[in-house]
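ESCALATION

Customer reports they have been waiting on this structure for their group meeting. Please prioritize. Original submission:
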Amino acid sequence: MQKEAIVMSWSGGKDSSYALYQILKEGKYDVKYLLTNIFKPNKRVSMHGVPESLIKQQAENIGIPLITMYIEEKTHDEYDLKMKEVLLKFKAEGIQTVAFGDIFLEDLKTYREMRLAEVDMKALFPLWKQATSTLAKQFINEGFKTHICSIDTAKIPKELIGIDYSNSFLNQLPKNIDPCGENGEFHSFCYDGPIYKKRVKFQKNGIVTKTYKHDQQEYYYLFSDLS
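Update from on-call: job pushed to the front of the queue and completed.
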């Protein structure tokens, strides 16, 4: 039986890593590409702050080709336009499905499905509606190694930036914070685990603080400066 060719949406974090792991274990799909979005001015994954060079290393160490979509303005219109162009290229190769690591955000799932439907493609969500507390423990127990690369300081203690995603990290999270950070409380960079042929080597170069304004409010994020 021929496997269905698919693309994996790739942020470099734990959820996309674990979703890919589940897909590969199932053995039903042929993952042709990892698809990542890079903010071109700083060559980093936007909310993760991870440099493009490390995303490339991830793909090489996993053994799946990386397709990079460059964003220059961080607007929804630009993102939608460029994504449609990329999806049409995949479709021309006979690929009909894109997989995502989303877990329970209904609006995000709907958005992805609508964008794919516009080009007559479909979405796959391997982790959908699984208990995040269970996923967090499974991810750690199965040998994945992940670095906490950005946090929302309004939700997460600043001491938790730049450390590994572990049982110790989970125990230090405030009670109201999702253990997978599904609401954007924190983001991660996965550097080792069952999907990797070898560990991704990286350096920590300190912590960077960035301020974002939305609806006349300021939000402070801490980033682990990686290279």
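Sent to customer with the following note: The two ends are 42 Å apart (CA to CA).
Escalation resolved.
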